[in-house]
Write a structure and sequence with these properties.
By secondary structure, this protein is mainly beta. It has one domain: GroES chaperonin (10 Kd Chaperonin, Protein Cpn10, Chain O). It has one helix spanning about 5-10, and strands at about 20, 30, 35-40, 50-55, 70, 75-80, 85-90, 95. Strands 6-7-1-4-5-8 form a six-stranded antiparallel beta sheet, covered by helices on one side. A two-stranded antiparallel ribbon has the order 2-3.
Length: about 110
């Protein structure tokens, strides 16, 4: 599901500083900086998660639809719209916005 079609298909309008994000395709195994594959089942202490913005309220200033954002999965409210799961956040709960992708597919964001 692409972000542009997701935005058009959503039957809701976000209010104030709320951001609706999709975590589809973000979970799963990861690669370390050295190329080691880390399975999704590995338990890691406090880990932030990536998501794609699919809708934003009128008072949201720092992100736009289509941005990849970093948030704390423990501070989230989940909602289902037309069979898809989304996460509802306030703009202040977002920790970072990914930069434009580099040629090797990396985001350019180092935390």
């Amino acid at each position: 599901m692409s972000t542009s079609s997701a935005e058009e298909a959503l039957p809701i309008r976000m209010l104030h500083d709320r951001v609706l994000v999709s975590t589809e395709g973000e979970a799963g195994e990861r690669r370390s900086g050295g190329g080691i594959v880390i399975p999704a089942t590995v338990a890691i202490g406090k880990r932030l998660g990536w998501a794609s913005v699919v809708a934003a309220g009128a008072n949201v200033r720092a992100v736009k639809v289509g941005d990849r954002v970093l948030f704390d999965p423990d501070d989230k409210a989940e909602v289902e719209v037309r069979g898809h799961d989304y996460v509802l956040l306030r703009e202040r709960d977002l920790h970072a916005v990914a930069t434009e992708g580099l040629s090797d597919g990396q985001t350019g964001l180092y935390l």
